[in-house]
Amino acid sequence: MKIGVSSCLLGTMCRYDGSGAKDKFVVDELSTYFEIIGYCPEEVFGTPRDTIRLVEADDNIKVVNNVTKEDVTKRILDSSIHFAKKATQDKLCGFILKSKSPTCGMERVKIYQDGNNMNEKKGVGIFAKELRKVYPYLPIEEEGRLNDPWLKENFLMQVFAYNNLMNFLESKPSFKILVEFHTSYKYLIYAKSQASYKLLGSIVANHDKKDLEEVLEEYKINFLKAIEEKGNINKTYNVLLHIFGYFKKNLSKEEKEDILETCEDYKKGIIPLIAVTKILNMLVKRFDDSYLKTQVFLNPYPKELALRSDVRAYK
Ligand code: SF4
Fold this sequence. Notes:
The chain contains twelve helices and eight strands. It is α/β, with parallel strands linked by helices. The relative contact order is 0.10. It binds iron/sulfur cluster.
């Protein structure tokens, strides 16, 4: 699995002043699970270099060298297009961008008024924009936002689901395999949006008898939109109750009360999700439930990432 990263986050000394901006999470944790590829569109200016800024002029955004005042829009745009194209060739399943940068920033990048220092944080970096054009549904986040356990959990869940979908499509699946894939994502997508799961179900049911290729393309777009949605504590709690429902008949009154209390504690933010899914996984094993064994929701990514061990990972 490959993840793209703004090169400076890897510690590469490619910033304007010849420094890097090594991000501990990217370098120490993610590199265990992903092949990480760095991209630095500003390398076209060499390092060290003058800083640049986004400037609003005549309803357009231009890029200006802060020292010489030269308009460098074309140079950074060409470089950004080049690196965005390279990113598609690299077949990524996610991207982590450097925040605040006029080139890499995903949101809230400063846009200056022409000729003065007044600015508003309302822009998108030139490369970030080009990356979104070539990869409309790629999971993309900024390193700063990944300090929020909720955004981090949602992002990595999306990355793994994105990768699974791409591998699934590359395997040239039949209608039967599509049904299996879709079923395995039932509860993960429920935890984001039941409406999305229903829509995907109607695509798979294929009442209009479309050919397989058309159905897969439609499924792909809508699956990627579904996994882009952020989960929340209430939707996740409902999924836990759904899964618990499979075992109701097999458990004693005390066991049922204990498990329901555990689900409630999760909902109240007293215990993390892993405490509940651990119990549910034990029940799946104990009663050998072949349907639930396939549910990605119960094991969406390597447990060592420990994303579900933090009560703050759900809101
Ligand atoms: S262009 Fe992007 S990768 Fe290069 S130094 Fe700036 S923020 Fe980092």
